Amino acid sequence: MSKKQIPSKSNEKESGKLVETTANTTIFEWLERYFEKRKNLFSILITGIAALFAILLFDVKMSTGFDDSMYIESGYNYAKDFFGFWHGANAPLYPMILALPIKMFGINVILLKSLSVIFFVLGIYFNYKAFVGRIPYTILFLSLLIVATNSAFLAHASLTYTEAFFSMIQGLFFLSFFKLTDHIAVNGSGIKENWKQYLGLALVTYFLFMARSVAAGAILAVVVYFLFQKDWKASLFSLLTFIAVTLPLEGLKKMIWKGASQVASQGNAMFQKDFYDPGKGQATVADFFSRFWTNAEIYLSSKLWEMLGFRNPDSQYSTGITVFTILLFVTGLLWAIKKKNKAFQAAIIYAGVLTGVTFFALHTNWGQGRLVMIFLPYILFSFFYGIYALMDNKSLSAMQIAFLIIAIIFFARNFSITLSETQKNTPILAENLSGNKYAGYSNDWVNYLKMSEWCEKNLPKESYVACRKNSMSFIYANGKAFYPIFKTTSNNADTLINALKTNKVTHVILAELRMDPSKYVEGSFVNTIHRYLAPIDQKYPGSLKMVHQEGTVEKSQLYEIDYSKIVENPMQPIPAPIK
Predict the structure, then answer these.
(1) Which residues make Cβ contacts (< 8 Å) with residue 128, sequence separation at least 6?
(2) The dihedral of CA 289, 294, 295, 296: what is its sign?
(3) End position of a domain, from candidates 368, 392, 416
(4) Pairwise pLDDT comparison (397 vs 455), residue with the higher score
(5) Confidence of residue 12 (pLDDT cuts 50, 70, 90)
(6) Which terminus of the chain has fewer CB atoms gathered within 10 Å of its CB, N or C?
(7) 379 and 462 assigned to the same domain
């Protein structure tokens, strides 16, 4: 018996097989034929559009969110001492990758942001390569075009958050996954015949987990997919191979970085009732299900539709829209099962499992669209396929124009926002590139960042400055380390001052960063540092001496700590240094 050839694509009509044009050719059939003949051109066009708009929306500035600058600071620490530093805040792979360009070129923000643009474009290209010929070209190109021109995704394409990097790894995951399923179609599910493909998928899945902790759910998605196919062997071998890869790599990781765990601190926080108040205790099973549904409403009724341009920013959550979105998603899956399109099944199961894991894991007061934005291509696959499959019938061919109208509406809403954001960004980008690195920041941030820069240029090298946004200060102070104060846990002056003294803090930045970033309200600012210093100043007058001030409105002030003015309290325990 001759050896079968490995099928690289599905042979279903709907997956892109060339269709002959006849008098009875439907709109969908004509589109498939048109895209099939020009698929390479359209793939180049879409990735080119993605690159173009990523450049037009390029943001030279650092995001005022903490994670953006934190990844660069961690990358810098890895570059200085790769085996002596561990990034424990969240998944460590991205800052490890950043360490290489930082080691070679220093903290070059534009270079690091340009890498994110490359990751974003590669993410779109890898998804094209993974799904081309497996799903209708109409849905593939429409979904990828929306992602390539989506303002929310493009904004993250020039940030040093993990979204662009994770999207690239995600594309590689599906390339590896389909390589396995193609081999299984020929050789059966045995480990002996497909061990390279099982191993490859396990490694990519591990890297996915290293890039984002909730992506550990990807292996669950693989298992569920094979169970849907009633392929118990492939389900079991996929799980066992992942375990066989993960356990030694995790063990090696803990040996190299002395017990480092990616999920320990995150896991502890996840199991708290309130991320910001551990005193409220641990979450119950009921709390987790309540969290799941609240997050579903936040992301599926608000953040997702805001991202696509159909709802205003910070719109109210809606149970009705949440249910409607879930029904769209489930409809896509049911049609994929009915039509036996395994590529759609894989994409929809993956998106469903990982958004589900995300909703259980996230605290409801975070509410950031980027946390589900990374699944946008597969969510769009599901939405569009649910409508497309319904009309993919000779008897309903006249209704296929309705699908095109829906597609145009989706693209137009998405693209109009991107054009508007481009017009806003280009003047600021031009000013940034001409040398004004503070252009585009609000006044409070300009004063804060100028103060951070002043500290690096004017304070002694051994000085150690406490502040609210230490990673942002680190970037604008050219790599000078700052001590973070994120919250006040005591009103006791001795406890507070001892923490500063133990960590050898010499100065503190007192800044008036806005509570509402969009507008200045007199007297309304983040007062964490003010509340921290108030008991110290009250008990030990004269111990805080102002050395420098930036700005008059929304000012930032630098205070030096004079420890000679402080009477030691031997009964007060000294807290352990913050690592």
Answers:
(1) 43, 46, 47, 140, 144
(2) positive
(3) 392
(4) 455
(5) very low
(6) N
(7) no
Chain mean pLDDT for the chain: 89
Contact 465, 558 (CB under 8 A): yes
Secondary structure element (H or E) that encloses residue 550, with its range: strand 544-550
- The per-residue pLDDT for 273 is 65
Whether the Cβ atoms of residue 557 and residue 509 lie closer than 8 Å to each other? yes
What pTM, to 2 d.p., does this model score? 0.89
Q: Report which residue type is found at 193.
A: E
Residues near 45 by beta carbon (within 8 Å), at least 6 away in sequence: none
What single DSSP character describes residue 558? E
Q: Based on the structure, what is the number of domains in the chain?
A: 2
Lowest mean pLDDT among 123-132, 251-260, 456-465, 470-479: 251-260
Interior angle at CA 76, CA 82 and CA 458, nearest 5: 135
- The answer to whether residue 578 scores a pLDDT higher than 50 is no
The phi, psi pair for 556, rounded to 5°, reads -120, 135
| Environment class of 46 (CB within 10 Å of its CB; exposed 0-12, middle 13-18, buried 19+) | buried
- Whether residues 558 and 454 share a domain: the answer is yes
| Residue 263 clears pLDDT 90, i.e. is over it | no
Q: Which of 299, 295, 298 is nearest to 287 (CA)?
A: 295
- Domain-ending residue, one of 374, 392, 410: 392
CA distance 384 to 124: 18
DSSP per-residue codes, 301-356: IIIHHHHTTSS-TTPPP-HHHHHHHHHHHHHHHHHHHHTT-HHHHHHHHHHHHHHH
Tens digits of residue pLDDT in 438-449: 999 999 999 999
The dihedral through the CA atoms of 556, 562, 566, 572 has a sign that is positive
Can you give the residue range of the structural domain that contains 373?
A: 263-392
* Token pair recorded at residue 214: 């909730």
Same domain, yes or no, for 371 and 292?
A: yes
Backbone torsions φ then ψ of 277, nearest 5 degrees: -140, 85
DSSP labels for 387-454? Answer: HHHHH-SGGGGGGHHHHHHHHHHHHHHHHHHHHHHHHHHHHHHHHHHTT-TTTTS-HHHHHHHHHHHH
Nearest to 6 by CA among 245, 237, 179: 179
Residues 301, 376, single domain; the answer is yes
What is residue 315's predicted lDDT score, i.e. its pLDDT?
83
What is the spatial distance between Cα 541 and Cα 562, in angstroms, rounded to a whole number?
Answer: 10
Is residue 32 within 8 A of residue 87, CB to CB? The reply is no
Read off φ and ψ for residue 3, nearest 5 degrees. Answer: -70, 135
358, amino acid identity: T
Same domain, 379 and 460: no
Dihedral sign, CA of 336, 341, 347, 349? positive
CA distance readout (Å), 550 to 388, 511, 556, 566: 58, 9, 5, 27
pLDDT for 277: 62
Q: What is the per-residue pLDDT for 2?
A: 41
- Tell me what pLDDT residue 19 has: 47
In a domain, 10, yes or no: no
The C-alpha angle 155, 158, 160, rounded to 5 degrees, equals 110
